[in-house]
Amino acid sequence: MEPQIPKYSVIVPVYNRNDEVADLLTSLSAQTYKNFEVILVEDGSTQPCTEAVERCGQGLDLTYRHKSNEGRSIARNCGIELAKGEWLIFFDSDCVIPPDYFGNLDKALAGSALDCFGGPDSAHSSFSDVQKAINFAMTSFLTTGGIRGGKVSMEKFTPRSFNMGYTRKVYDRVGGFREMFSEDIDMSMRIRNAGFNIGLIRPAAVYHKRRVDFKKFLRQVYVFGMSRITLKLLYPGSLKAVHTLPALAVVAGILCLVLGCMVSPWWFLPIGVYLLAIFIAALASTRSLKIALLAVPASVIQIGGYGCGFLKAWFSKIVLGRGRNINEEIEMRRGK
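Above: the chain sequence. Below: its structure as tokens.
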């Protein structure tokens, strides 16, 4: 009897994430729907996840491939070349997958005409309070406009690589990921521009650990802000009002602080009202006073880091016109 060809191929790039991979594989082993394979691509890690694979990968249709360090996009493309499934599914190594994920996904896709999908993310009860606060900052309508799969959103939904998938037909026409920052948004735009159907499948949600401290989180969102300008240069119509709000908030916040110090303390009021709104929203969402308190600096970092990265890239790449041609830059990073 020939082995069953998997319907779904799960592709995960890995770089020095042994503990995270253990949690990911354990969650995949517990799936109620079993017709999927898992492809882990170790991207030149100095601390491979071999131990996690041997300990937690039992019972999975698992391929574990090592390669030299070239970046997560190249690692995903390597995984695609190894995949046998009809659907290519992408998770980040710091995700934990609920046991009914593939059951929910299979049911939703059976009644849809989607070629590409994405799902939301949230914090698991086992995550640290800082991770839960960061999760709030990344998913709240007050901080990101709900663009990461919220029920209310200021932007058309765009799948992201911590939880997205598309058919092999999409890959054959659009190609793989390009090695650049915000490569998942770039991929989603290329898929949409090629005329494929993209949608949000809300029941196909994952738990996403994100960054474990505020310093790493600041670096991450700063890069996100810079990459939004790269995306604007690649796709001139892609920049929406919601993407500029953090930068405007940074400018407005600095102005209020200056006026508050030099003119009247009343200028501090807008900042205080906004931070209070974040605290109340986080408290209502998490039902934890500690997480709500942590959500305030997390949200300041999210908005401030993204806004500063956006402003720096806007001034450098658009006002001053510095840097290489965007398409040439991507080609130099070996994207397709």
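The CA atoms of residues 186 and 231 lie 7 Å apart.
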